[in-house]
């Protein structure tokens, strides 16, 4: 399994300048290659139009990576216009061509339906003004971690890294990233032994209902609230955004305010990621099986709830739960998108129809039941019942989460 390990890096002013050069070279290679491919594609389109008398004519071959690498890196380096490529490791530039290739492929596959999920736009030209800059160093670039625990990157230097945890094995690559708020990160790709993180099985499962007022309500009646530090960061972000909107366009003060907004944004994103990591770890390590709704984030985003949905960042949370479950030998099951978790009485099973979002508490109308429900807790319990049913139906007949679920589903 491949995992990413990210650490904060603090480059010296000189290293910043050299990193900016590497980012710049990478950007130029990307743009040169993109322009070349686009030109060929446009020419072929012209040759292929029905009213063109050369319609049958020979099409131009779309240049492949080896051609691009030869003309746009190796040979270009010798020209005056691209002489500054000497400031960038060749491997980084070749990696850029591979990244561009992958971007084209993602776009083509998404067009033909080979790739699922949202549509992927064709690759775009990169700008110096882009918020995020990055450069990936592979093994061939001979980057290293020095005796003094610094990260040695060719053409940049020995960077000071804030190591917050140990790398489980030798990383295959490292990406130097400058994020939108001007911070630098080293992101390592590490191959891990899948067996190393599998936890011993436990006899518990949990259903999660992701809510608006509380971050999540669990089937056992407990809930997860957004932590104070996250709410504080969000409050600060809103304040900074208000300040920015009051600044005059094009003014120096507006630029300053914009950086403050970007910093506040980064802080919210970081806090939220920590919060999601913490809870997804807790849930997947304490439970053998975790059940959740299937989110239609894109669908909800079109409605009035959009803001809170994005703010809550459920998709990231569910994604964390998913990969942690795999990693720890646990399971995460999503119940169908149209499963009416808030319509069914979790005590007697009566389906009571849709309820408006403002109905937080309701009473089951079944004469023999009459249970009073907290909307979210009831939904969490229903998600757990439904998840157990799905797991029991799909799991192989071996002991483990499936067997547990089969027993409980009865
Ligand atoms: Zn009932």
What this model shows, in words?
With 410 residues, the chain is an alpha+beta fold. It has helices at residues 13-48, 65-75, 90-112, 228-246, 252-286, 297-301, 306-312, 314-327, 375-394, 401-409, and strands spanning 2-10, 133-138, 144-145, 151-153, 157-162, 173-178, 184-191, 205-210, 216-218, 223-224, 289-293, 331-335, 361-363, 372-374. The chain has a seven-stranded antiparallel β-sheet. The chain has a five-stranded mixed β-sheet with strand order 10-9-8-11-12. The longest helix is centred in the N-terminal third of the chain and has 36 residues, at 13-48. It starts with a strand and ends with a helix. Bound molecules: zinc ion (ZN). Residues 345, 347-348, 350, 364, 366, 369, 371 line the site of zinc ion.
Radius of gyration from CA coordinates: 26 Å
How far the N terminus sits from the C terminus, by CA atoms, comes to: 36 Å
Q: Outline, from the CA principal axes? A: elongated
Counting structural domains, the number is 2
Helix segment count?
A: 10
Q: What low-confidence regions span 5 or more consecutive residues with pLDDT below 50?
A: none
Instruction: Give the overall pLDDT as a whole number.
Output: 85
DSSP strand content: 15-25%
Order of helices and strands: EHHHEEEEEEEEEHHEHHHEEEHH
**Helix percentage range:** 40-55%
- Order the strands across the largest sheet as they lie in space: 2-6-7-1-5-4-3
Overall number of strands = 14
Structural class: alpha+beta
Cofactors, ions and other ligands in the entry: zinc ion
Which sheet architecture does the biggest sheet show?
Answer: 7 strands, antiparallel
* Multimerization state: single chain
Family: In the C-terminal section; belongs to the transposase 35 family.
Keywords: DNA recombination, DNA-binding, Metal-binding, Transposition, Zinc
Biased composition (Basic residues): 235-251
InterPro entries: Cas12f1-like_TNB (IPR010095), Transposase (IPR001959), Transposase_put_HTH (IPR021027)
